[in-house]
Amino acid sequence: MLKLVRKMINILFSGNEKVLDGVITCMLSIFTRTNTTEPFCFYIYTMDITRIKKEYTAISEEAVKYLDEIAKTYNPLNKVIRVDVSDIYEKEFAYCPNEMAYCSPYTLLRLFADLVPDMPDKLLYLDIDLLFNRDIKLLYDIDVEGYEYAAARDHYGKYLLHPNYINAGVLLFNMKEMKKTGLLAKARELIKTKKLVFADQSAIYRSTTKKKMLPQRYNDQKFLHKHTVVRHFSKRLFYLPYPHTDNIKQWMISKVHKVFKYYVFDDILFEYVYLKKKYERNIRGGNYE
Which DSSP letter does residue 153 get? Predict the structure, then answer.
């Protein structure tokens, strides 16, 4: 008897205990902006690396269980899977030149996607500081056959580094092709041997054999248009009232309203506030069942 394999939309996050705000808001944006009966499988790569900083603790099993319950309220077949890659990290990157990366060592974890068993052939890696403005299937259903991955240009890198320099916050992986070309193995070797300004992002870019370039609307790091699929709340430059940078994330609701004048995400953000308070009250308070 043939075993039926259910089609799923596979998404990868990475981070520590502090990613909860981003993962909740990003998941909610996917659920509320997408019309599909296909279930979602969210993987969260995490690790304990408190030898570097005491706050670098792995996301807890309780937090992931809570995320799984949130996901299942939208579809009982949805699931959130915690993957502890501490051992892989220590073997591959311990004390490497990029361990003190521009963000944190957790940005390097996406480079282990070919080392973790049973990962799906098609996998959408997402940074946690982004929201979907439109249906995720506009992105996920893009054909990446013959390409290692699909990505949009980095807003600043396309001017400062190379016209096709990519932003690694949104990466649609073709795992079969990446394993065939050895992209991630090559990227890991660069991380281990060379100090790179943008660490994992530069390592992926330098190791690429063939990528599919996506329009900016699939990873818009500066603007929000009606056609924007993904609004990425990455660090950006502001010119007023004087030139400065700021790192406004989507869960900083007052700043999203005051600085960006965004109200289109309020349904997501208000639900996030309720869910985060519930987590802090019931789980952190020890009443979680």
Answer: B
In a domain, 1, yes or no: no
> What are the backbone angles phi and psi of residue 27, rounded to the nearest 5°?
-60, -45
- Answer yes or no: is 2 within a domain: no
CB proximity list for 208: less than 8 A, separation 6 or greater? 148, 149, 183
Q: What angle do CA 276, 279, 282 make, to 5 degrees?
A: 145
Give the whole-angstrom CA distance, residue 62 versus residue 59. Answer: 8
Split into its structural domains, the chain has a count of: 1
* Angle formed by the axes of helices 86-93 and 183-193, nearest 10°: 60
Residue 236 C-beta-side C-alpha neighbours within 13 Å? 18
Q: What pTM did the predictor assign?
A: 0.92
Phi then psi dihedrals of residue 122, to 5 deg: -115, 125
Structure tokens at 130: 């982004």
Residues 2-15 pLDDT 10s = 444 468 999 999 99
Tens-place pLDDT, residues 255-288: 999 999 999 999 999 999 999 999 998 876 655 4
Q: What is the rounded CA–CA span in Å between residue 158 and residue 142?
A: 22
Is residue 288 assigned to a domain?
A: no
130-132 vs 230-232, strand pairing mode: antiparallel
Domain containing 275 equals 9-283
